[in-house]
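Hi everyone,

Forwarding the result from last night's run.
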Amino acid sequence: MSLNVAAVRTQFPALDLTVAGRPAIFFDGPGGTQMPQRVIDRMVRYLVHENANTGGPFATSVANDAMLANARAVFADYFNCAADEVAFCHNSTTICFKLAQAIARDLQRGDEILVTDIDHEANRSPWTVLADRGIVVQSVRVNPQTCTLDLDDLAGKLTKRTKVVAFNAASNAVGTISDAKAIVRLARSVGALTVADAVHYALHRVIDVQDLGVDFMFCSAYKFFGPHVGVLYARRERLEALRTLKVVPQKDYAPDMFETGTLNHEGIAGAAEAVEFLADVGRHHAGSVAGPEAGNERRRAIARGVLAMEEHEQPLAQHFREQLARIPGLRLYGPPAGHPCTSTISFRLGSWHPDALCQRLAERGIFTWAGSFYAVRLVEVLGLRESGGLLRIGLAPYNTRDEVDRALVEIRALAAESA
């Protein structure tokens, strides 16, 4: 049984938007997906009935604390971890800066950190700034022909002084899915901590931190149908060994020791509801999508939901790529056929500047992104930074074959203009 796209689409009120009399096509998912009505409703319900700070004896504070406990339990099932290994924050970039600063308090001059050339700056800049403290920061090469990480280069740069290996599980710019288990295994061989950016990965693959063996992994709920909230998985013993930056009254144990100040409670309520949406998709595909047998019912449903959406998106992406590759003057950027990749498609078209192409598509009601998408180093390696980067299309489970074909018509017409 294939994903019931029509049923999925009815849950997203934003899809009613029109541009110049035609339905909008949301191909901007890698920059943030649209939100189902149930997530919006959950946030409103919080603001009306549960809006309070933590720790009070009155009804709204008690309800607020119950919401937070439930949200941790929901994300524990999402990550496959314990509830006290889930911490919330403003966004993923802030998570990584806070984590890097905490780890750096116990580093010495000459200690080493590895980042990668394919990463979003959210998992590069927080580490590269530590060079000011005498920390040696090196970057693992990416192959510009295949848009894949050079794991031999990673292995060659590991030393007994390597303390952190920071990498992304999937590239938000070109969709490449890296071999996270191999990276973690290499890092462990020298006793280094691993910090994985799963922001782009989260919508497209089932996350299992136990299987990956990663120490820290973060994601952003707005990339999988939730609001703008960052979520961190932190292995308990790893987090509690850090001297996190916090105010004096803050608790000294996980996960509270990472969560500074009052959190975005309504956002956390919505983020948990977004995961429940994934689980409900999975429940509707219980007999048709093979998911993991381990874990509780919600964990299994979440996994099936993600798998069902990917089974819908991957053939669409393959069709899209095949048709784009036939357009004269269009060059696709991404991993080779057969290499794991998300349903994200990036390209350059003839003499078009990506910004201008993005604008023209927007005028036709087709929402895409142009630029580096904060994957600045990757775009530099590809030789595209000075010329505007890439045009990026990202598919989501609410996208359809008709939308893909309509976009292809418009892209072909724009290609003819530049011929």
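The domain at 5-36+299-418 is CATH 3.90.1150.10 (Aspartate Aminotransferase, domain 1).

Cheers,
N.
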